[in-house]
Every structure is written in C-alpha cells, then in structure tokens.
Write a structure and sequence with these properties.
By secondary structure, the chain is an alpha+beta fold. The protein has one domain. Helices cover 47% and strands 13% of the residues. It has two helices and two strands. It has helices at residues 14-26, 44-59, and strands at residues 3-6, 31-34. A two-stranded parallel sheet has the order 1-2.
Length: 62
C-alpha cells in the first residue's frame, strides 16, 4: 500500500485524506503529496516523476 495525492485535490475531502495519510504512514508505507496538483490530470513532468517512482517501488515486489 502507498499513496500518491494531489495537494489541491478537489474530490477527496481534507479530513478523509488526513485519515488516509495516517493509515498509510502507520503501515510504514510511502506517501507522496504532489505540490500544486489536483486529483487529475497532473502536469506532465509531475506525472512522469510519479511513474518512475512507482516503477521503482513495484520492482521491489516483482
């Protein structure tokens, strides 16, 4: 489990995301908050960075 979240997400309630971040961190899993990003679409360079990090993360389990 891990979380990637847009800092300016207009769909996920702030209370819900705080609780979700807490749960993910309690499980010692990564949380990445994308500065100035909405739920979607993310800026191209931000999305590319996330994809690269996600690939590295998943490679640990494959």
């Amino acid at each position: 489990m891990h979380l990637v979240y847009g800092e300016r997400d207009r769909y996920v309630d702030k209370r819900d995301i705080k609780e979700l971040i807490k749960i993910v961190k309690e499980k010692e899993q990564p949380v990445k908050i994308l500065k100035d990003q909405d739920h979607s679409p993310w800026e191209y360079d931000v999305a590319q960075e996330v994809y690269e990090e996600e690939t590295k993360f998943l490679d640990k389990y494959l």
